[in-house]
Amino acid sequence: MHIIKTKAWQLGEKSVTDEKIYNERRRLMKMAAIAGAGAMVPFSLKASATYVPRALSFAPNKAYRDLSPTEYEKITTYNNFYEFSLSKEGPSKLAHTLIPEPWTIEISGEVEKPMTVDVAQILAKYPLEERIYRFRCVEGWSMVVPWIGFELSCLLKKAGLTSQSKFVQFQTKYDPQMFPEQKSEGFFGNIPFPYVEGLRIDEAMHPLTLLSVGLYGKTLPKQNGAPIRLVVPWKYGFKSIKSITKIHVSASMTRSTWNEVNPREYGFYSNVNPDVDHPRWSQAKERPLGEFFKQKTQHFNGYADEVSHLYTGMDLRKHF
Ligand SMILES: Nc1nc2c(c(=O)[nH]1)N[C@H]1C(S)=C(S)[C@@H](COP(=O)(O)O)O[C@H]1N2
Ligand SMILES: [Mo]
Question: How far is CA 73 from CA 20, 64, 215, in A?
């Protein structure tokens, strides 16, 4: 039974600071432990004892190479995945129940060829590439992730969009055996499962929008949304829905989980914007994972040159 009443990302500025100090202290303790053992622990790609991500072949990408990726350890042990846990440490310990193979994605709605694609085929046949992107959670922390994936537009073009296609909705697999918290009714302010998210069609077709199947050159760890998840780098992290099994193209705006749970706090667009604060905390700054000092939040998370034209003429305070 869950007795915690506050959502994990409903942190005020104060608790964000507490968390920052907490994490820094843990980092120092870890460093001290390593030094004490008298041996340097090499950088390891092992995050979850029950699942060993395997190497993928992919094309390195020149874009955004100036960013230095956050440690693998951080990316894979500090997660938001409410189907497993509310805590950041929970998903990496609990996600062993997720069975990522076999796995299919059903594409339906306003497409010429509705289809079901096998993720194993995607891994084998699609030209995968590496994209090093900034990632910004609405809670105020950020990281840099070397994703492996392909553009969502590749898949949507395969299915063929009709002239009525205006929005796309994504759905996380619903299977309480694999995702135990899906069966807890009334789970944290009635978060309705399955988790759904949506994009406008031009956002979905944008070349920055990825379907990711891996990170750091390996298949995606379970806690990061295996076997396939969305990555929309100019939007807050909750738009980047994990473990997708359905993609539905439609003529009108679709539901999205956090917008439904709390529309005042989480808009449909959710573009990263330092000028539009969350009702309970400022978005002007962010704390990179593992770092002590905060840094300034960038408009569209640093991708303004690429994406701001999508929102010409829109009031981004109203359409937050
Ligand atoms: N299905 C599902 N997708 C999800 C979430 C979730 O709880 N369930 N959390 C979102 C949030 S709030 C963030 S910040 C990112 C976290 O991704 P990461 O754990 O790989 O960093 O996943 C997003 N996608
Ligand atoms: Mo998030």
Answer: 17, 21, 12
